[in-house]
C-alpha cells in the first residue's frame, strides 16, 4: 500500500484523489460495510466484572442478617465475578455513515453515467 498515491488537498479545499487510490478506497469501504453488516444483530457477550468492595460488603451484611434471624453463624462471603452481559450488535449508525461516505465519494454526478 506504500505505492498507492495519497490524495492531494488543493488550496481551495478540494480533495483530488488519484484513480488508483479511489478504487482502493471504494474497495476498502465496501469490505468494511460487508464486515459490519455481517456482525449486525449477532449476540455479543461482554465478560462480567468483579463485584466492587461495596457490593461484597452489602452481600456480607445480607448474609449476616439472614444468619442472625435463624440463629446460625454467618459464612464469610468472597468477592465474585458478576454475570456476563449479553446484547445484540447494532451497527445501524456506522453502516449508515459508511453508506453516506460511499455515496459522497463514489456516486456519479447527476446527468453522468456511473462507473
Secondary structure elements and pairings:
Elements: E1 8-9, E2 15-16, H1 19-39, E3 43-46, H2 53-70, E4 85-88, H3 92-106
What is the overall number of helices?
3
The average pLDDT value, as a whole number, equals: 87
How many separate domains make up the residues?
2
First-to-last CA distance: 23 Å
What percentage of amino acids are in beta strands?
5-15%
Instruction: Count the beta strands.
Output: 4
Helix proportion range: 40-55%
Morphology call: rod-shaped
User: What is the H/E order?
Assistant: EEHEHEH
Which value, in Å, is the CA radius of gyration?
A: 28 Å
* SS-based class: mainly alpha
Question: Largest sheet at a glance?
Answer: 2 strands, antiparallel
The residue ranges in which pLDDT falls below 50 over 5 or more consecutive positions are 111-115
Strand order of the largest sheet: 1-2
Amino acid at each position: 500500500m506504500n505505492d498507492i498515491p495519497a490524495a492531494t488537498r488543493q488550496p481551495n479545499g478540494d480533495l483530488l484523489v488519484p484513480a488508483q487510490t479511489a478504487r482502493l478506497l471504494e474497495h476498502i469501504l465496501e469490505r468494511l460495510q460487508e464486515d459490519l453488516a455481517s456482525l449486525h444483530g449477532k449476540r455479543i457477550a461482554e465478560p462480567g466484572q468483579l463485584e466492587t468492595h461495596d457490593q461484597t460488603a452489602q452481600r456480607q451484611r445480607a448474609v449476616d442478617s439472614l444468619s442472625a434471624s435463624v440463629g446460625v453463624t454467618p459464612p464469610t462471603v468472597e468477592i465474585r465475578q458478576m454475570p456476563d452481559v449479553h446484547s445484540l450488535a447494532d451497527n445501524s449508525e456506522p453502516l449508515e455513515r459508511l453508506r453516506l461516505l460511499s455515496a459522497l465519494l463514489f456516486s456519479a454526478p447527476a446527468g453522468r453515467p456511473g462507473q
